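Please review this one:
***
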Amino acid sequence: MMDELISRFPAQLREALDIGESAVVRPHTHTINKVVMCGMGGSGIGGAYVADLVAGDCLCPYIVNSSYTLPAYVDKHTLVIVSSYSGNTEETLSALGDALKRGAKVVCIASGGKILSLARDHGLDFITLPGGWPSPRACLGYSMVQQLYVLRHLGLTGSGMTANVRVAADLLSFEEEDIKRKAAQIAALLHQKTPVIYTTDRSESVAIRWRQQINENSKQLCWHHVIPEMNHNELVGWKNIQENIAVILLRMKDDFKRNQVRTDLTKQIVGRLTPTVIEIFAKGQSMAEKMLYLTHLGDWVSWYLADLNGVDASEIQVIDYLKNELSKPGL
């Protein structure tokens, strides 16, 4: 099933764009000088993408908040975007209640659940996502694109980013078979190894996505870090031979020049200590195209790796167990 959901990603992006075009987001009564996006897991990752994508466009801070509470600076001049595919995410509901008390401008994004009920009860703007998707992590396109439209409708960004996403959807469709072929090859190199994902700080969201998809779909641990920060700490940890670690370098040819040099040197250093270093350059022209190309590739890698690991990519029993335990009275 997960492979079917992954294959629908380009179509999901196009559907999300159509939803965003028709969404209604009313102006706020106060000037917005910061944006806080609230979301967890598969719903929250869209916020990380948007933060990276609009860093050079949005003139106010865009902060991802994955917590029960909001920072003290959230006030009537804050846009709070509440994203939960199910509409019932415990932490996100708590943050929504906090946002209402602060007088923030709140926009909700969900397929249903308590969040949309609260949005209707409190007269909040909301965008309804298509229901029926069994895995929130497969709904990145819906979450990310709607957040971009919320910013656009409120005049915090222009229309260029959503236009780039439409081009990216076409790129992914065109490259689909090649992406799957490359993903199968990469998964074979990662099999029975611990993946370590490195990218530059401008696209950390993509590395997070790779890590989360390998965690959830492939059912194995991995970690990620960003350049240049990892050059100031984690690099020192590369002291001994690490034959069971596979390093993945996610790269863009227009990364900041000094970070390109740092990545080349990092590749050289770790390449002496592990036999498996995989360098992947993004395809596409815009930042959105490059990020979504690497994302789609990573999603397919996680599925092929799940197959090699002999696990069901859709299964999340341990998360279901945790939620059931948390729902017990007294906890």
Notes: The chain is about 50% helix and 15% strand.
